[in-house]
Specification:
alpha+beta, transcription regulation, two-stranded antiparallel ribbon, repressor, 24% strand, 2 domains, 39% helix, DNA binding, Multidrug-efflux Transporter Regulator, Chain: A, Domain 2, Multidrug-efflux Transporter 1 Regulator Bmrr, Chain A, 252 residues, MerR family transcriptional regulator, 8-stranded antiparallel sheet, 7 helices, DNA-bd_dom_put_sf
């Protein structure tokens, strides 16, 4: 083996960026010599072997502070470090699995919206029994809003001038009861609902009400289950809409 090796040669051999090698040197993870003529870093066979250890432990996500101890760690201390690392990896696996589950839920929501777009105005049972106003001052409400966004709903009553944001749970006395199921046999029709991002207006609902009226339906309250947000001519929140059917004068 040629001795000593340059930083570029080490970078190619170990598939480690030169910037990482320089950083490890600055943190004293490895012992290097300098060329007497040009002051460049020089890597010996011994240093190359030590670096391969660094690369190995980095692949295990070992923290830098633990890697710094490797040059003087005892077998027992090394085992303790690896036990702690194993615990951290288990926690990270749990976090990644939760993230993967959330990604799957969001993709299901997008597919749900696309299916409703392709087959709008179908009868379907509503999947909640009660709705409360959203308490914007409550941290617990925000935590639930973020962790389970499908629990976020939009509510529009023909008797009110603007839609309201609600949840299926009450988190404080400030959460007002907006709606409660009275008739479990009540009919609903689903439709794709897109509203202005974070700013739903009455006008977002009117086209669907007009279509249903043209189909012979008399509509009541309208709900929307939040699915996702994206851009479609403008930034929008997309919901699975449910409209209460009061009466039907003729067939579809």
């Amino acid at each position: 083996m040629k001795q000593p090796l340059s930083i570029g040669e080490i970078s190619q051999l170990l598939n480690v960026p030169k910037s990482t090698l320089r950083y490890w040197d600055s943190e004293n993870l490895i012992d290097l010599t300098r060329n007497d003529v040009n002051n460049y870093r020089e890597y010996s066979r011994h240093t190359l072997i030590a670096l391969s250890d660094m690369v190995y432990y980095r692949s295990l996500n070992m923290p830098l502070k633990e890697m710094k101890r490797l040059k003087a760690v005892t077998p027992k201390d090394l085992k303790d470090s690896l036990i702690a690392l194993d615990k951290n990896l288990e926690n990270e696996i749990d976090r990644l699995l939760k993230s993967k589950a959330e990604l799957k839920k969001r993709m299901i929501n997008i597919n749900t919206y696309m299916e409703i777009v392709n087959r709008p105005y179908q009868q379907e049972a509503i999947d909640f029994k009660v709705l409360y106003s959203f308490d914007y001052q409550n941290p617990e409400a925000w935590s639930e809003c973020i962790s389970d966004q499908y629990e976020n709903l939009i509510y529009y009553d023909n008797d009110t001038s603007c839609p309201q944001i609600g949840m299926t749970k009450a988190f404080s006395t400030k959460s007002r009861l907006l709606w409660k199921e009275k008739d479990k046999n009540q009919s609903y029709i689903t439709f794709p609902l897109a509203v202005g991002y974070g700013n739903p207006t009455r006008e977002d609902f009117l086209p669907h009400i007009d279509i249903l009226k043209s189909m012979g339906y008399e509509t009541g309250k309208i709900f929307g289950r939040y699915l996702f947000s994206a851009f479609d001519k403008k930034h929008c929140d997309f919901y699975k809409g449910f409209v209460e059917i009061i009466d039907k004068n003729n067939g579809i």
